[in-house]
Design goal:
Order of helices and strands: HEEEEEEHEHE
Number of domains: 2
Mean pLDDT: 80
Helix content: 10-25%
Radius of gyration: 29 Å
Number of strands: 8
Shape: globular
Low-confidence stretches: 1-28
Number of helices: 3
Strand content: 25-35%
Strand order of the largest sheet: 3-5-4-6-8-7
Distance between the termini: 97 Å
Length: 188
Amino acid sequence: MRARLLILSAFLLVSACASDSAAPDDADATTTTGAGTATTLPEVRPTVADEEPPTWYGEMVNLHDLTAGQCFNRYSWFQDDRHIEFDTVVPCELPHQAEIYLHVQHPARQGAPWPGDSEMEGFARSQCYEAFDEFVGVIYELSELEIAFLVPNRTDFEHDVAQFRGVHCYVVHAEAEDLINTARGSLR
């Protein structure tokens, strides 16, 4: 009888030790309540230091509403752990960050599905590159300006009524300096 108790005790001890060491690696992410139900601990995000809103000028605008020849600024900051962004349209004669030089429609037929991010960005890149030297007056590789573009997202592209297909090409200074006056024919 004593041998059976000893074997039973050894078996229980090994079982108890094995269950403790077999706990999953992510045990710290889940805890069990007294009622036996598992709950997930909330993820703690690092807080971002608040920033003062920048001094801005111009009229707030949706960049997709702008056309070739219009200049704009982009503003961005963090406040109460939120990333705040907006854009303003400004006269090109005043300091500005960017100028739209081409607005072109993607050639997808009416009702076509979203071609994908790679296709949209490839289409934008090729259209913007092809029109750059005619706008600035110098080839892209020799310019101090950079090409940037704005493409529609999947939701806007596939929208039943609106079907935004427009790609906006714009120039910015390579060193993030403000531009003054139009970049058209500037040889920059």
